[in-house]
Specification:
The protein is an alpha+beta fold. It is 41% helix and 18% strand. The chain has 2 domains: 48 residues, no CATH class; 114 residues, GMP Synthetase, Chain A, domain 3 (2-Layer Sandwich). The chain has a 6-stranded mixed beta sheet.
Length: 195
């Protein structure tokens, strides 16, 4: 009888279809995998394939600041446009949260946003000339980006000057213009030096 069983086994293997062979291989592999791992895989498959599962809310793009910031007040004077008010608010918030927040003290804007005046804290004096230039450029570029995003200016118009003053005594410490760039004012002589 032993001869018969040996001779029939190869014949049976030869008669198996490719699908049976594949299923047999999968079954043999599954027997070797721990049951816990299989259950975890099934759970993950069901979780991600479940049609009833609500999609998580999409994160708003970084440029959608308007959803988070307050709207201009209803009693805004007629001489101040809502875009101007929003530009001041947005720029002030961004500068207050920047790496230079310990230097930034506050800001004012005039002439429909073409002139910006920024107060700097006493920590300004601890900065190197390169760091001071970086702060001035940060103020100018932040204002310009926000004013462009809000379409604050008519075509051909834009930011004309940024003046940085000491918060202690209103002494001008730096000036920026589109034509001259950053000019640092050193000491009592107030002679501008290009940075």
């Amino acid at each position: 009888m032993a001869r018969d069983s040996r001779s029939t086994t190869p014949k049976q293997a030869a008669k198996k279809t490719p699908a049976q062979t594949l299923l047999g291989a999968i079954g043999a592999g599954l027997r070797k995998i721990p049951t816990t791992f299989v259950l975890v895989l099934i759970g993950l498959f069901i979780y991600f394939r479940s049609p009833d599962e609500a999609q998580p809310p999409e994160q708003p793009p970084e440029d959608s600041i308007s959803q988070e910031e307050p709207q201009p007040p209803d009693d805004l004077p007629a001489s101040i446009s809502p875009a101007f008010w929003t530009c001041v608010y947005r720029t002030d918030t961004q500068l207050s949260e920047s790496l230079w927040s310990d230097v930034y003290h506050g800001m004012e804007a005039s002439d429909a946003g073409r002139s910006v005046s920024v107060s700097v804290s006493p920590k300004w004096t601890d900065l190197t000339p390169d760091q001071r230039s970086t702060v001035v450029e940060l103020v100018a570029t932040t204002w310009q980006k926000n004013s462009q995003d809000l379409a604050l200016f008519e075509p051909g118009a834009g930011l004309e000057s940024v003046t940085l003053k000491s918060a202690d005594d209103d002494t001008i410490v730096a000036v920026w213009t589109p034509h001259d760039g950053v000019q640092l004012v050193e000491g009592e002589s107030e002679s501008p030096s290009h940075g």
